[in-house]
Write a structure and sequence with these properties.
The complex is a heterodimer of chains A (394) and B (255). Chain A has 394 residues and is α/β, with parallel strands linked by helices. Chain A has two domains: 16-57 and 95-209, Rossmann fold; 62-93 and 214-390, Rossmann fold (3-Layer(aba) Sandwich), CATH 3.40.50. Chain A is built from 16 helices and 14 strands. A six-stranded mixed sheet of chain A has the order 3-4-14-9-10-13, with helices on both faces. A four-stranded parallel sheet of chain A has the order 7-6-5-8, with helices on both faces. Chain A has a two-stranded antiparallel ribbon with strand order 1-2. The longest helix of chain A has 15 residues, at 30-44. Chain B has a single domain, classed as TIM Barrel (Alpha-Beta Barrel). Chain B has 255 residues and is an alpha/beta fold. Chain B has helices spanning 3-13, 31-40, 60-71, 76-83, 98-104, 106-115, 132-141, 155-162, 187-195, 211-219, 228-235, 240-254, and strands at 18-24, 46-49, 92-95, 118-122, 144-149, 169-172, 202-205, 223-226. The radius of gyration of chain B is 16 Å and the shape is globular. The chains are: A alpha/beta (394), B alpha/beta (255). Chains A and B meet through α1, α8 and β11 of A and α3, α5 and β5 of B.
Chain lengths: 394, 255
């Protein structure tokens, strides 16, 4: 599936993107990481596997998702904004692309159970969905804080037959859910695949997840051409671990488009981080002067992560992509604006990217520019939280 | 040969099964007294756990102890300062996650361990494939790099790992994070695969909770590491005398 790309090519044999990536895992997990790499390379080169992956994404997940011109927002801002509508994919976000691929791979490896971490719950719901479809057993680890602010998603996962395990350690958010999933994986690696939800973790996960999300960028590139727009001036996406951004960037890495990733101000690994090693990868991390990992704080559970995928760290270091941060205060306004002007309620994560576009139109985004926004998820999961905030209850 | 490995081989040469307790540095203000008590009670070497915010290979006991120690302000520098007051000698081996050393600077960290009397280091999230820089930094400082061997490690990887592990080979008894278990799991099989390619001392850890389990593990290896079971009693308030009797009970089981 991979086409040769100058800026987003395959990692080297150690799983490195420039200075970042690699495989920093306990010996107990090394054989599983090696097995996974072999299985992924084999599957991804198998036309039958690709055919099934694409067919399931079409018939089950609703791909291709459309590209929608955001006319009223464009008029307001003096730029031309197009949205890649991952919010319209099954389960409400781009997460489905990755889990369809990974669950098919799980079955191909002869494993019958998946585990996953989740922050906002989107990856957990997507994993539970894809697991149900294939009859795989599914356990999702979710920080206790997140099970409270995303309680409906917990119930969704349970409806889909998954077991949700609240994680009580550390900051009780996404970072700790990853720790707990890794701890679980050590005990059951023979029959269980760790369905990691973002472009992070040990090699081959950052590469594999980007490949499984790159369908976003490939579709969008073709769709913009069909619309007569051609190459956009900017491609903008929110970044927690960075899977939706990696997926859309992959379609434009070798074009002239500026690639822009938007982090939450309280989880800004590029803006505030430094090189470090966590969760199996060398990347940029928010950490204190002693190398202890700092806790991220964001209004959106999906961006509440102190690190970033290693390929993003590389894209930032090489200058191919730009990363900026948006604070909680701008996010709600952006969510309301997109809802009122375009009839689309975005996820709080996605609203960070919207907020940056609104804020920078006419400054970092020259007037008249063409912007592709990756509308990574819908806001249904967030409406109770947003209502509480707008009523002053949160 | 590294100093640590010479010490541990001499121990085996003398017919003694090694008893290696694990402490979380800085867990209590008097943690160095606990280390001394363990050595007095018959510990042959001591693992010094350097707390990390995200201990991916540790179960709830060491997670809790790490958090408490971090909240008390423990750092690599502070625990090395504490160790200067250690009045009893035994080989010391640090155990922590790679980010601590990576952030400190690899050469600087290895030097800090050496000047603090620590002769080896276990870094459970540092895979063989990523360990080159750390091994070079340790080589220069005579700090032994100890590698873990898991039940999932195949014979080919065992051969590669025995080529780089120094001091001893850390045999994981089970596919699990640290914590107390009911039996010694795959200990014998893991030790046998190590011995098939190396004569380096092989110690069993992960899950060793009782003197009886320690005796069973030592019967198929050169020694045992006792972590969570010991840290648990300290979390529950044990002082130096309780640590001494706890370690003495393991010593009796091994002799």
């Amino acid at each position: 599936m991979t086409e040769d790309s100058t800026f987003m090519s395959s990692p080297d044999e150690r799983g490195r993107f420039g200075n970042f990536g690699g495989r920093f895992v306990p010996e107990a997990l090394m054989p599983a990481c090696l097995e996974l790499e072999v299985a992924f390379r084999d599957a991804w080169a198998d036309p039958l596997f690709i055919e099934e992956y694409e067919r399931v994404l079409r018939d089950f997940a609703g791909r291709p998702t459309p590209v929608t011109p955001l006319d009223r927002l464009s008029e307001r801002l003096g730029i031309r904004v197009f949205a890649k509508r991952e919010d319209l994919a099954h389960t409400g976000s781009h997460k489905i692309n990755n889990v369809i691929g990974q669950t098919l791979l799980t079955r191909r490896m002869g494993k019958h159970r998946v585990i996953a971490e989740t922050g906002a719950g989107q990856h957990g719901v997507a994993t539970a969905t894809a697991a149900a479809r294939l009859g795989l057993s599914c356990t999702v680890f979710m920080g206790e804080v997140d099970t409270q602010r995303q309680s409906l998603n917990v119930f969704r996962m349970e409806l889909l037959g998954a077991t949700v395990v609240p994680v009580l350690s550390g900051s009780r958010t996404l970072k700790d859910a990853v720790n707990e999933a890794m701890r679980e994986w050590v005990t059951c690696v023979d029959d269980t695949h760790y369905c990691l939800g973002s472009v992070m973790g040990p090699h081959p996960f950052p590469w594999m997840v980007r490949e499984m999300q790159s369908i976003i960028g490939r579709e969008a590139s073709r769709q913009l051409n069909d619309l007569g727009v051609g190459t956009p001036d900017l491609v903008v996406a929110c970044v927690g671990g960075g899977s939706n951004a990696a997926g859309v960037f992959a379609g434009f890495a070798d074009s002239t488009a500026r690639l822009v990733g938007i982090e939450a101000a309280g989880g800004s690994a590029v803006g505030k981080g430094s090189p470090g090693v966590l969760h199996g990868m060398k990347s940029l991390l928010m950490q204190d002067e002693f190398g202890q990992i700092e806790e991220a704080h964001s209004i959106s559970a999906g961006l509440d992560y102190p690190g970033i995928g290693p390929e993003h760290a590389h894209l930032a270091e090489s200058g191919r992509a730009e990363y900026y941060a948006i604070g909680d205060e701008d996010v709600i306004d952006a969510l309301k604006l997109l809802s009122e002007l375009e009839g689309i309620i975005p996820a709080l994560e996605t609203a960070h990217a919207v907020a940056w576009i609104v804020k920078e139109a006419g400054t970092l985004i020259p007037l008249g520019s063409t912007v592709l926004l990756n509308l990574s998820g819908r806001g249904d999961k967030d409406v109770a939280q947003v209502r509480a905030i707008l009523r002053g209850e949160a | 040969m590294r100093t640590l490995e010479a010490q541990l081989r001499a121990l085996r040469g003398a017919g003694r099964k090694a008893l290696v307790p694990y402490f979380v540095a800085g867990l209590t203000p008097d943690w160095v007294r606990h280390v001394e008590a363990a050595i007095l009670a018959g510990a042959d070497a001591v693992e010094i756990g350097i707390p990390f915010s995200d201990p991916m290979m540790d179960g709830v006991v060491i997670q809790e102890a790490s958090l408490r120690s971090l909240n008390a302000g423990t750092t690599l520098d502070s625990l090395c300062t504490d160790l200067a007051s250690l009045s009893t000698t035994a080989p010391l081996v640090a155990m922590t996650y790679y980010n601590i050393f990576h952030h400190y600077g690899l050469e600087r960290a290895a030097g800090k361990l050496r000047t603090s009397g620590i002769g080896g280091a276990i870094v459970p999230d540092l895979s063989l494939e990523e360990s080159g820089e750390w091994r070079r930094a340790c080589e220069d400082q005579d700090v032994a790099t100890v590698f873990l061997f898991a039940p999932s490690t195949d014979p080919e990887r065992v051969r590669l790992l025995t080529g780089v592990t120094q001091g001893f080979a850390y045999a994981s008894a089970r596919m699990a994070v640290t914590g107390q278990a009911a039996d010694i799991g795959d200990a014998q099989r893991v030790v046998e695969t190590i011995r098939a390619s190396s004569d380096i001392p092989a110690y069993v850890g992960i899950g060793i909770a009782t003197p009886e389990m320690a005796r069973a593990a030592a019967a198929v290896s050169d020694g045992v590491i006792v972590g969570s079971a010991l840290v648990k009693i300290i979390l529950d308030g044990a002082g130096a005398s309780e640590v001494e009797s706890f370690i003495a009970s393991f010593r009796r089981a091994l002799d």
